[in-house]
């Protein structure tokens, strides 16, 4: 992606995230499933494997990512771009919880 489009994606994601509440309540019933994902740590192959096995996020396919999207792996930006794009498309069906590695102070260490 051209840097201009990445910047637009980041700005729009920031706008959407600022409008969202700090706490999100989710529930399931027998007819719905939610895929809960742990730490990706910048590993794009893990994210692609999750989507391959569970399907892409959609109105029928809800996801919760429990933080630590970045660090350690070499594909942190790619992961953020993918997750932010899906968040903009499905803001009520893809949820991003911040982990300690998304904190500026933690990453300084």
Quickly list its features.
alpha/beta, EC 3.1.3.16, 109 residues, manganese, 12% strand, metal ion binding, Calcineurin-like_PHP, 3-stranded parallel sheet, Purple Acid Phosphatase, chain A, domain 2
* Tally of helical runs: 4
Domain count, please report it.
Answer: 1
Form type: globular
Largest sheet: 3 strands, parallel
User: Over the alpha carbons, how many angstroms does the gyration radius reach?
Assistant: 14 Å
* CATH architecture descriptor text: 4-Layer Sandwich
Structural class: alpha/beta
The name CATH uses for the topology is Purple Acid Phosphatase, chain A, domain 2
Query: What is the ordering of alpha helices and beta strands?
Result: HEHEHEH
**Average predicted confidence as pLDDT:** 87
Counting DSSP E segments of at least 2 residues, the number of strands comes to: 3
Care to describe what's here?
The protein is an alpha/beta fold and 109 residues long. It has a single domain (3-108), classed as Purple Acid Phosphatase, chain A, domain 2 (4-Layer Sandwich). The protein has four helices and three strands, in the order H-E-H-E-H-E-H. It has helices at 3-19, 44-54, 76-89, 104-108, and strands at 34-37, 62-66, 94-97. The chain has a three-stranded parallel β-sheet, covered by helices on one side. It is globular, with a radius of gyration of 14 Å. It starts with a helix and ends with a helix. Keywords: Hydrolase, Manganese, Metal-binding. GO terms for molecular function: metal ion binding; protein serine/threonine phosphatase activity. This is Serine/threonine-protein phosphatase. It is an enzyme of class 3 (hydrolase).
């Amino acid at each position: 992606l051209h840097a201009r489009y990445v910047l637009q994606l980041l700005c729009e994601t920031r706008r959407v995230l600022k409008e969202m509440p700090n706490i999100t309540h989710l529930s399931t019933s027998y007819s719905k499933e939610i895929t809960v994902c742990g730490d990706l740590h910048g590993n794009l192959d893990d994210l692609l494997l999750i989507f391959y096995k569970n399907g892409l996020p959609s109105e029928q396919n809800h996801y919760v990512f429990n933080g630590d999207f970045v660090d350690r792996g070499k594909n942190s930006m790619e992961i953020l771009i993918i997750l932010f794009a899906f968040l903009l498309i499905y803001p009520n069906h893809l949820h991003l919880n911040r982990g300690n590695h998304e904190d500026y102070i933690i990453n300084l260490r």
